[in-house]
Design goal:
Layout lengths: L2 H7 L9 H26 L4 H10 L4 H13 L5 H14 L4 H10 L16 H13 L6 H13 L4 H9 L5 H7 L2 H11 L7 H13 L4 H14 L1
Helix pairs in contact: 2-4, 3-4, 5-6, 7-9, 8-9, 11-13, 12-13
């Protein structure tokens, strides 16, 4: 029992109390314990009302006690879900996170997602994707394999696939530059590892073509690599 509760009840050693007074005292002790837990938690981490309710339920407190504690926390201005939701959105935007990521974060924290429309407009998403991509790669141009990885990364950050692909493709290497970056020599080396027996069979050549295509090689580079690999067989 806290010192405040002792003062409030006016108890003293040896005092006799009725069953009703005992029940009231027990309820007060439980409420006091629940409030102490809530105040300690709120002092350590920002918590939404829903998350605090869930934690109190996990501790075994009843609904009446929980309602009392929540009311007290509001009275002390320690719970403010709206301000917390705005903070999550602002931090997400400054960290170049998309709407999908932010929505998941709000739900995880037990917060309403209605605030999202104030921060994320579909018409602005492509610009947000562009800013996120620039923060990650600067002015770098991307080959096909890098493009695929970057689109996946942007989608994981909460951006929609379509604007992510559009922005990434605008940073693509030219075909000439990509051929220089990933020419037939690299592809031939890969084929020698995957097909040490050579590519005399048509079926193996088809599989080799599909393999290189999946790896992002241009068709001209693939054709040249297959020709070299066959000649080396």
């Amino acid at each position: 029992m806290s010192q405040d509760l002792l003062v409030k009840t006016g108890l003293y050693t040896g005092q006799e109390i009725s069953k009703e007074e005992k029940k009231q005292l027990e309820d007060s002790v439980i409420s006091d314990s629940a409030l102490s837990y809530a105040l300690n938690r709120l002092g350590q981490v920002m918590t939404s009302e829903k998350k605090l309710r869930d934690k109190l339920k996990e501790k075994g407190y009843g609904e009446d006690v929980i309602d009392h504690v929540i009311a007290k926390c509001h009275e002390f201005c320690l719970l403010n879900d709206e301000a917390m939701a705005h903070s999550v959105c602002e931090n997400a935007l400054s960290g170049n996170r998309g709407r999908g990521w932010t929505e998941r974060k709000l739900r995880d924290r037990g917060l309403s997602t209605t605030v999202l429309d104030q921060y994320y407009d579909p018409e602005d998403e492509e610009q947000q994707v562009r800013e996120a991509l620039t923060a990650m790669i600067g002015e770098q141009e991307l080959d096909r394999r890098q493009q695929a990885k970057m689109v996946s990364k942007l989608v994981r950050r909460g951006f929609s696939p379509a604007p992510s692909r559009s922005v990434v493709e605008a940073c693509a290497l030219s075909e000439e530059d990509e051929a220089l970056a990933h020419g037939p020599e690299e592809a031939v080396a890969l084929l020698k590892i995957k097909y040490p027996q050579g590519l005399a069979k048509a079926a193996d050549r088809q599989k080799a073509y599909a393999l290189l295509a999946r790896r992002g090689y241009l068709s001209a580079v693939i054709s040249r690599a297959l020709t070299i690999a066959q000649q080396d067989t």
